[in-house]
Amino acid sequence: MRVLVLAGLLAAFVARRMLILTTVDGSSMAPALRSGDRVLVRRTRRPRRGQVALLRYPPLPSGAPAGEQLLLKRVVAVAGDRLPPGWADPDVHGLGGAVVPGGCAVVLGDNRPASWDSRHYGFVPRERMIGVVARHVSRE
Q: Distance (Å, rounded) from C-alpha 36 to C-alpha 136?
């Protein structure tokens, strides 16, 4: 009995450290993720192309602290990938033709007109990555 209790406590501790349950807020990832959807995120700082990543909100252009707001975006390029010219509109940072540097990724919302993503804030450093969506938990 004691072993089962310890195993349960260990599993809960690992799950808490490795998994995050979050709610989607906004339409930038529609139709894959809609506002109100709940998703389970597995912690990792090494997302693969095609995965939906949870990341810390990039700093505002003014340099003011952005707080702990988080974003869900699809990873479209990882370190070593070359972005084709004209890869996005608008390409505010002029990333077209660039190679994604080591330790960085490029992310886009699935619903481009409603998304604030790498087109606007450039490469996302690994330090800003929290994890990747492991599964949908519920849909409102």
A: 11
Of 27, 28, 115, 118, which one is the catalytic site residue?
Answer: 28
90-135 pLDDT tens trace = 888 889 999 999 999 999 999 999 999 999 989 999 999 999 999 9
Domain residue ranges of the chain, discontinuous segments joined by +: 2-138
Residue 28 among the catalytic residues? yes
Candidate list 35, 62, 73, 138, residue with the active-site label: 73
CATH 2.10.109.10 is the classification of domain 2-138: yes
80-111 burial string, b = 16+ CB within 10 Å, else e?
eeebeeebbeebeeebeebebeeebbbbbbbb
Is 73 a known active-site residue? Answer: yes
Give per-residue pLDDT as tens, 27-76.
Answer: 999 999 999 999 999 999 999 999 999 999 876 656 555 556 899 999 99
14 membership: H or E segment, kind and range: helix 2-18
